[in-house]
Amino acid sequence: MTLASAFLKLDNAASSLEEHVGHLRWAVTSTELSDPPSVVHQWHDLSTDFDDLSREVAAAARLGRLAVNGRAGLQGAHTALARCQDCYTRLWLRFCAEGLASGGRRTLDGLRRRGPLSTWARGVADATDCCLEPLYEVGLALGQTWQELVERAWLGLLVQSPGLIESTGGAMVEPVSPVVAQDSDAPVSGESAAPSA
Questions:
Q1: H or E stretch including 144?
Q2: pTM value?
Q3: d(CA 34, CA 118)
Q4: Is 157 exposed, middle or buried (0-12, 13-18, 19+ CB in 10 A)?
Q5: At what angle do helices 102-113 and 38-68 cross, to 10 degrees?
Q6: What are phi and psi of 137, to 5 degrees?
Q7: Which class for 149: exposed (0-12), middle (13-18), buried (19 or more C-beta within 10 A)?
Q8: In whole angstroms, what is the distance from residue 55 CA to residue 19 CA?
Q9: How far apart are CA 78 and CA 115, in angstroms?
Q10: Which of 5, 18, 44, 170 pairs with 11 at a CA distance of 20 to 30 A?
Q11: What integer pLDDT is reported at residue 34 of this predicted model?
């Protein structure tokens, strides 16, 4: 996979997510009630936030795709990818904490079974469930795009460092691949994972 194809995959996944979240927003706002209960207001606010964040994810993915193929290059791609990751993380956390929270789901499930809001609640629950796969796909595409970006940047460093081979007397030095740590306790490339005494 190339960096351009990774960004294209991310752009497609983010567009799909934006579309599915748009369906959720429509499901939430499609019913007009004269005096809606608080759960309707909560879902209205939540779906608005989801919609805004999914649009930001998609816009950042598009900017990254354009940066790779344009003048902005790796720096522009990195900036766009970091923005996309930030918006996606906020969307994912909010979606899990509030959209899938057991209390909120129980309320929707209770409304689905009875009452005048049963059709509304069923539509909102179904639309929420349909967002899970696109959220997952964007997460995968983000991981692949970060990997491609790091590999391309690392290869750029090798190409820009021709003195490395000359300084070793012509012997080929096997470079150590960079390690992207996800937490502060992870070992850094070249360091032992065992604690030192």
A1: helix 132-159
A2: 0.75
A3: 16
A4: exposed
A5: 120
A6: -65, -40
A7: buried
A8: 9
A9: 50
A10: 44
A11: 74
For residue 17, which amino acid is it? L
56-94 in b/e form (b: 16+ CB < 10 A) is bbbbbbbbbbbbbeeebeeebbbebbebbbebbeebbee
What average pLDDT values come out for the chain (197 residues) when binned by 10 residues? 92 97 94 80 93 97 90 85 96 91 81 82 92 97 94 66 51 51 49 49
The one-letter amino acid at 188: V
30 phi and psi, to 5 degrees? -70, -25
Lookup result for tokens 């940047």:
153
Rg (CA), the chain: 23
- Contact 22/51 with Cβ under 8 angstroms? yes
CATH code given to domain 3-167 = 1.20.120.230
Q: Which residue's structure tokens are 């629950």? A: 125
